[in-house]
Amino acid sequence: MMETKEKQNGILEGVIWKQLLIFFFPILIGTFFQQLYNTVDTVIVGQFAGKEALSSVGGSSAQIINMVVGFFTGLTAGGTVLISQAYGASHKQRLEDALHTSYAFGILGGVGLGVLGVVLAPLILAWMNTPVELMEMSTLYIRIYFSGLVFVFIYNMGAAILRAIGDSKRPLYYLVVCCIVNIVLDLVLVLYCSLGVLGVAVATLVSQAISALMVTWALMHKVDCMELSVRKIRIHGEVLKNMLQIGFPSGLQASMYSISNMIVQAALNLLGVNTMAAWTAYGKIDSVFWMINSSFGIALTTFVGQNFGAGKWDRVKKGTRVCLGMAVGTAICLTAMLMTAGRFLLGIFTGDAEVVEIGMTMMRSIAPAFVMFVFIEIFSGSLRAQGYTFVTTIISVLGVCVFRIIWVSLIPASEGLSTLRRIVACYPISWVMCAALVSGYYFYKQKRIIGRMEQRGAARIP
Question: Per-residue pLDDT tens for 263-273?
Answer without folding.
Answer: 887 788 788 88
